[in-house]
Design a protein that fits this description.
alpha+beta; two-stranded antiparallel ribbon; 2 helices; about 15% strand; elongated; binds zinc ion
């Protein structure tokens, strides 16, 4: 059983990394126009996954991310 533990730890770490990149977005509201986001529209940035309400907002933000600050969802 001893050999099983490192393997489990490794897979947990790998899963954690994968979730960080493809996991839920950090925001609930579109940073561009404040509408509810749809998670299919998202960009992975250094702030995490940023989600948008539509592809137009996604493109707008991508061109000028500094102009539209992302408000992270409040964790409960
Ligand atoms: Zn939007």
């Amino acid at each position: 059983m001893k050999t099983l533990i490192p393997a489990l730890l490794l897979s947990a770490l790998t899963l954690g990394t994968a979730l960080a990149k493809s996991g839920p977005p950090v925001n609930d509201l579109c940073p561009v126009d404040g509408k509810a986001v749809r998670i299919i529209y998202r960009i992975f940035s250094e702030r995490g996954n940023v989600a948008f309400c539509c592809t137009e907002c996604m493109e707008t933000w991508r061109k000028n991310p500094g102009r539209y600050p992302v408000k992270p969802r409040i964790e409960k």
